[in-house]
Amino acid sequence: MTLLALERVGKRYTAGRSERVVLDEVSLSLDQGELVAVWGMPRSGRSTLLRIAAGIEPPDTGCVRFQGRDLWSAGGGALGDGVGYCRSAPRDREGRVVLDELTLGPRARGAGNSAALLRARAALERAGAGDCARHPMGELDGAAAVRVGLARALVLGPSLLVIDEPVTGVDLLHRDELLALLRSLADEGIAVLMSVGESTEFSGADRALRIGGGGLGGSVNPELAEVLPLHREASA
Questions:
Q1: Nearest to 86 by CA among 23, 138, 148, 32
Q2: Are 63 and 7 in contact (CB under 8 A)?
Q3: Could you give all domains of the chain from N- to C-terminal order, each with its CATH number?
Q4: 211: closest CA among 21, 13, 14?
Q5: Bridge-based pairing state of the strands 61-66 and 4-15
Q6: Helix (H) or strand (E) holding 12
Q7: What is the pLDDT of residues 3-28, one digit of tens each?
Q8: Strands 4-15 and 18-30
């Protein structure tokens, strides 16, 4: 069964009398263990697409199904209940250290302190951020912030991981390591949906899709993507 399905999803934003169509009857599906990258120009709608896919923001039209269930039929999404979402850097909360921050999710779902700590440490190790456990959240930067963000999503054991621009602003060496980490998570059975800002950032993806003009499509062979233009060249 398809793990995630977006069916003819539409989204538009209005500001005064102006209206911008971000998604126009967009459809997308992910299976277990699949890594899909969505790339496009700034304001192409890639972040909006991911928020809708994660159940953070409802679509105006269409349907989003996770494990066959309409995410919005009961009025809410599935974050923490099979879906993990993260951006590059988690927000600082009251000056907490990383380990304490990561125990919040498990404890909110009934885990005792010892169990929450074990799960938090395991998630940090899996994300390659074990040495960040005692660092203040507000002092994280670069690849460390991304890894801790991943760990905070992984601590609840998601079957779908949605991550917005995981390697933006990360140096080349750490970027490749992070992309390899996402590939390994997919190989373990977690579906991964990520957005990227450059065609060079979807190394290891099973599918790379281009978004723009309200549409999503044009499945791209990752090996060939670097020679494809991101937008049509202006005529002379």
A1: 148
A2: yes
A3: 1-82+161-229 (3.40.50.300), 89-157 (no CATH)
A4: 21
A5: antiparallel
A6: strand 4-15
A7: 999 999 999 998 888 888 999 999 99
A8: antiparallel
Residues 51 and 20: their CA atoms lie apart, in Å, by 17
Q: In 10 A of CB 38, how many CB atoms?
A: 25
Return the pLDDT at 61: 95
Is-contact 217 209, C-beta < 8 A? yes
Is 60 exceeded by the pLDDT of residue 228?
A: no
Q: Which of 162-166, 167-171, 218-222 has the highest mean pLDDT?
A: 162-166
Taking only the tens place, the pLDDT of each residue in 108-152 is 999 999 999 999 999 999 999 999 999 998 888 889 999 999 999
Are 137 and 90 within 8 A, CB to CB?
yes
Residue carrying structure tokens 């990258």: 37
Which of 75, 77, 78, 100 lies closest to 90, judged by CA? 100
SS3 128: coil
Question: What are the tens digits of pLDDT across the range 182-209?
Answer: 999 999 999 999 998 887 787 789 999 9
Matching residue, tokens 């590059």: 88
**H helix intervals, the chain:** 46-53, 98-108, 113-126, 142-154, 172-187
Residue 226 gets which letter from DSSP? G
CB within 8 Å of 92: residues ≥ 6 apart = 136, 137, 138
